[in-house]
Amino acid sequence: MNADRPYRPALSSEEVWEILVDGAGKQWDLAAVDALASLARMEVQADRPFDLAAFLERERPVLDPRR
Length: 67
Description:
Elements (H helix, E strand, L loop, with lengths): L12 H11 L6 H16 L6 H6 L10
């Protein structure tokens, strides 16, 4: 949502948050949205601005679901 696509420009972090919150429990997994919001609160409490776009672009290990 926060990247340009051929059919639409990138959305701002604020627009993405609004879409995620509005769709939590319906379109998006409620636990996943809650977890992302919790991470955002931790960043803010650490006096760091939470940048959704930067967070989503971070490298994260892929978990093996068979473990």
